[in-house]
Amino acid sequence: MSTEVSSLPWAAAPAAGNAIGLYAKWTPALDAKIEAALARLRDATIAHGDGLVQSSSLGVEDMVITDLISRTGLPVHISTLDTGKLHPETLALLPQIKARYGFDVEVFKPVADAVIQFVAREGEDAMYRSIELRKACCGVRKMEPLGRMLKGRSAWITGLRREQSGARGDVAFDEDDGNGRRKISPIADWTWAEVWAYVDKYAVPYNPLHDQFMPSIGCAPCTRAIAVGEDFRAGRWWWEDSSKECGLHAKS
């Protein structure tokens, strides 16, 4: 397991307790929500078989879903994107998943030449100069490898939740992704407190950056901690006035 830690000041700062202590709260509805999420995963596996993949961001929601998949014993493929700009804490989850669940997570990386050409043309910090350049960077580092991840698949599982942002307030449990595939979001109706209550009860591994007030963790240059009262995704591309999406979950 990697022992590296991010060099960002908010990642290095001591946390005021951990995320479990700060957020976890078991609600009366959570038992039923867990059973419903398990049923959605079973139904998706029956409907799609080998055509189904969990596209994991390695964020806490996706770690919960990986745990649910393990508990059901369902033969669901698990994949993730390594953009080349992830925090070491994020990548350290890969061996933890292997050790805990026995799953080999398939990692999709951007095309090296495309990254080299983009950086040579626009610079390492291009994402800060305009929304267009940031989205172009996401296109090279995220969208192209996602296309390879989903090639030949009929459905993918995500950790989207309605509470994450206004733009995600209408996330469905099962919807068309605009490209002829089904997008399954089995915990769409869970609250942040319920996610952490599940993590606490079942000792789910998670990114320690969540303890540093980073509820949504993406590439290191594009993620910061959030302040009290800020939106869940306020720490993503914080310098922008945008919908805080990279294109992976854009509405068609």
Automatic annotation (TrEMBL):
Q: Catalytic positions?
A: 246 (nucleophile)
Q: What is its EC number?
A: 1.8.4.10
Q: How is the cofactor bound?
A: Binds 1 [4Fe-4S] cluster per subunit.
Query: Where along the sequence do coiled-coil regions lie?
Result: none
Keyword Iron: yes or no? yes
InterPro entries according to UniProt: PAPS/APS_Rdtase, PAPS_reduct_dom, Rossmann-like_a/b/a_fold
Which family does this protein fall into? Answer: Belongs to the PAPS reductase family. CysH subfamily.
Function field: Catalyzes the formation of sulfite from adenosine 5'-phosphosulfate (APS) using thioredoxin as an electron donor.
Task: Specify the protein name.
Answer: Adenosine 5'-phosphosulfate reductase
Source organism (scientific name): Roseateles asaccharophilus
